Prior knowledge:
By secondary structure, this protein is of the alpha+beta class. The protein has helices at residues 3-46, 53-74, 95-99, 103-120, 123-138, 159-162, 172-182, 186-200, 205-210, 218-224, 229-242, 266-271, 296-299, 320-323, 343-348, 354-358, 419-426; strands spanning 79-82, 89-92, 202-203, 226-227, 246-254, 279-287, 290-294, 316-318, 327-329, 351-352, 362-365, 370-373, 376-382, 390-397, 429-430, 432-436, 440-446, 451-460, 464-474. The strands form five sheets. Strands 10, 12, 14, 15, 18 and 19 form a six-stranded mixed beta sheet that branches. Strands 8-7-6-5-9 form a five-stranded antiparallel beta sheet. Strands 11-13-17-16 form a four-stranded antiparallel beta sheet, with no helix packed on it.
Amino acid sequence: MPKSLENRFLEEVRKLKQKKRKRIVRIGVLLLLVGILSAFVYFFFQGSLAIGNATLLFSIVAVIFICSFIVFVSQKKISLVRYQSDTQPLLFWKKNNFKRIKPKYFLGYTLLIIALIYQSNPYLFSNTIDELVNTIVYKPTPPILNSPWPWQDNAAIAPIIANMPSNAETSIESVAKYIAQHQSDPYLRIKAIHDYVISRVTYDLDVLKTGIRPAQDAKTVFLTHKGVCEGYANLFMALGRAIGADVVYIRGKIRRDLAPVELIPKVVRLVNSDYDWTNHAWNAVKILDNWQLVDTTWDDRDSSEIGFSSYSAEYLTLPPQVMSISHFPDQLDWQLLPRREDYNTFENKPLLTPKFFIEDLTLISPTEYKTNVEKVAAIKITSSSNYRKKIVALYTKVQKSESSFWELPGSVNLLEDNRDTQRKVENIKRCQSRWNGSTETEISCKFAESGDYEVYVLSLGQKVSLLGQLKFHALLH
């Protein structure tokens, strides 16, 4: 065989091998990319992806970079060079190939990816930047000292807020100055700010009813006296920082069964079918070198609610272990727990209110939010020896339109004239409670048919207090 023909034949063989290698690399990279993105999507929607927006964003960009680099390298020519002895081939990259990698291409692809992500979710970048700044600058750590919670000696609005003259409320700065001048205790200063927000701002239900969200910056909320959770948190942060405190705005989610979906008209829900109604905002504030958590939105109660006081400080500097039952921050450091918890753990906890811990109760069983039972659901709670209230429970079967934590017995929403609410009232039944000695209460709920049931645990004293909510799936044979 002539030498030229042999060289041509070897060259064609080499090209075929290169094409096969490129095809295998491309298929492998494609499968890798699809697998990684599928895993992200799966764990994200399953709720077990316990990472923040920043980590998720950077991970996706990193995966795209790696895959792009592999594809780029695989497309370059590979030179097969033999030693003069022609005894052992050596495979290596030409130096010139690395010079062909132009930074502008990587920059262009990166900007394109960022533009596409920003177009789909413009808040992802601003939220991510805020989270990074908060984490780097403020360095959240679990509190070492306990706060005055549950504020037993301060179960009313701060006098300096109740008696604040109108000329002190001309601006956010004037309010902060007045509080700083009339209160020196660092915890009571934060309580005064908390009390100012919940007494001056009214939750804007029109946002839920219409889906139209006005500006929620601190100044707008201060002037209009209306806002949603974002506005409450912004105003609290502005007032706190105006008196020199370190205050952080926290984004996150609440439990799925705590979302006030029943307050939102069906038309609004359909129009915003892709919106996550569990989104929420609250604050963290540093007092005496200890980070504490505050949710002014949830402490702003309707004074017309039956059996409830119009003032609440249950979500003012409460322990992180209690807040973590209902609040899950996007940036996990702001759980302020010694050990981070993932979203599945968050949703599987028994749904206990701050009042449960204020009354110094302990839930022995069940240990999870939703439990499978046969005919009877058993709940066991222990209390201190001097506990004088009665603990009772009510249950209702979950219908297609599930009852809401916001429509519990004692809430004004039960008095609304609509068929769904009336149906829920009629279907509420009482469980049997038995007191064993002075410290243990056993509750037994007998279900007549199979299905899912919600059980609401309450304490009966001078006022009705909601202690928690549990779910049971009854399997009747």
